[in-house]
Design a protein that fits this description.
single chain; 259 residues; 5-stranded mixed β-sheet; 30% helix; globular
Length: 259
């Protein structure tokens, strides 16, 4: 399922699951606050993450919780998602491409499941509960990690599957030079890395003219070391939800889809 959704989830509880290259994590989320309603459950992502094994891991996380009938369930995963079908698979087995992960999980657990790109889920969470809550206009949320994930939201409406980390800038895929992994790989200090981020965000600003840029991903824990070095037209601020964003956003998106 793929839809343009608005960041105003109704009250209640929904379950979010976030699939990563190393772990499958999930928790029920209080849709009034964006906080976990129970302790997070995590299982290792199967290696290799072939479809049957991955579906089993997701089902294990879902079935860990005693969910009331009708609880919305959302699953976020790293890849372009169109009508629930994985069009790409970052850090997961390529055999997943072309499959509807939500439909396969539904078959296993016997409950409706909504699927979304993981960066879109994280961005939606920041709009609904985090740093960008209540911000009008266009908000760009980026996740700086192994790659560069992106979520674009306009007046609370998510525009899915933007993949802005793969813009070609100065002849290179942007995330090759500007991702957190690129900084680690080349042993760059934050001051040495900042000009690469500056160039990336300048291009994005020229193309989209966002009213606000929110930076998430693991490196955002150290935002004070690099965000003050950037000189951009729009404000650029750290994400608030950090590692919970994928779970929270998946839950909120599911609540919107099934609400």
């Amino acid at each position: 399922m793929n839809a343009t959704l608005t960041a105003s989830p109704s009250a209640g509880i929904a379950l979010g699951v976030d699939i990563g290259g190393s772990g499958v994590k999930g928790a029920p989320v209080d849709l009034a606050t964006g906080e976990f309603a129970a302790e997070r459950c995590r299982v290792a992502t199967p290696q290799p993450s072939v479809p049957e094994a991955l579906i089993g891991a997701v089902a294990e996380v879902i079935e860990h919780f005693d969910l009331p009938e009708g609880t919305p369930i959302g699953v976020a995963y790293p890849g372009v998602v169109i009508d629930g079908i994985m069009m790409s698979a970052a850090n997961l087995d390529k055999g997943l491409i072309g499959l509807s992960l939500p439909a396969l999980v539904e078959e296993r657990v016997g409950r409706p499941v909504f699927g979304a790109n993981d960066a879109d889920a994280a961005g939606f969470a920041e709009i609904a509960f985090g740093s960008a809550k209540g911000v009008p206009g266009t908000v760009l949320v980026t996740t700086l990690g192994t790659g560069i994930g992106s979520a674009l939201i306009n007046n609370g409406f998510l525009i899915p599957n933007t993949e802005l980390g793969h813009l070609e800038i100065d002849g290179l895929d942007a995330e090759v030079r500007a991702s957190g992994a690129a900084r680690d790989r080349e042993g760059l200090s934050f001051r040495e890395w900042a000009p690469r981020l500056q160039r990336y965000f300048e291009v994005v600003d020229f193309l989209l003219h966002p009213d606000l840029i929110v930076v998430g991903g693991g490196v955002s824990r150290k935002h004070e070391k690099f965000l003050p070095l950037l000189q951009l037209r729009p404000p650029i601020i750290p994400a608030a939800l950090r590692n919970t964003a994928g779970i929270v956003g998946a839950a909120a998106l599911a609540a919107q889809a099934f609400g």
